[in-house]
Amino acid sequence: MQCTNCGAENAQNSQFCERCGAPLRQTLPDQNSDTSNMMVWSILNLFLCIIVGFFALVTTMEAQKAKTPQEFEQKMKTAKTLNITASIIGGICIFIFISAIIYSLIFGWGFRIY
């Protein structure tokens, strides 16, 4: 394995360069645990708010394929923002739906099938 810092050749299983001491591999965060939690949240939001939930799910799946820690963090931040947005929109929709049902039960203004 070649060092990207000084160009020295190192053993394949080395973590640091034998000549300059630079790390030979960038370590990524534990992508599986981070993305699995975000994946569940994305799927729940997919049902609450189809469009935003879909983009959150796609972004989370892209984060699993990230090549650098910076790319991973950026994609996870985007997925989290989309999930928060979908949760808020979904919550508002559920509130309006339940409010409409309660209102129709109290005042008798329901949907009528003729």
What is the topological layout?
Elements: H1 31-48, H2 50-64, H3 69-107
Structure explained in plain terms:
The protein is mainly alpha-helical. It has a domain of 77 residues. Helices cover 63% and strands 0% of the residues. It is built from three helices and no strands. It starts with 30 loop residues before the first helix and ends in a 7-residue tail after the last helix.
Summarize the structure.
The protein has 114 residues and is mostly helical. 63% of the residues lie in helices and 0% in strands.
Average pLDDT, rounded to a whole number, is 77
- Helix and strand succession? HHH
Radius of gyration: 24 Å
Which regions have little confidence, pLDDT < 50, spanning 5+ residues?
Answer: none
How would you sum up the major sheet? Answer: none
Distance between the termini: 76 Å
* Number of separate helices: 3
Share of helical residues? 55-70%
List how many beta strands DSSP finds. Answer: 0
Shape, principal axes of CA atoms: rod-shaped
Report the portion of residues in β strands: under 5%
Given the helix and strand composition, which structural class is it? mainly alpha
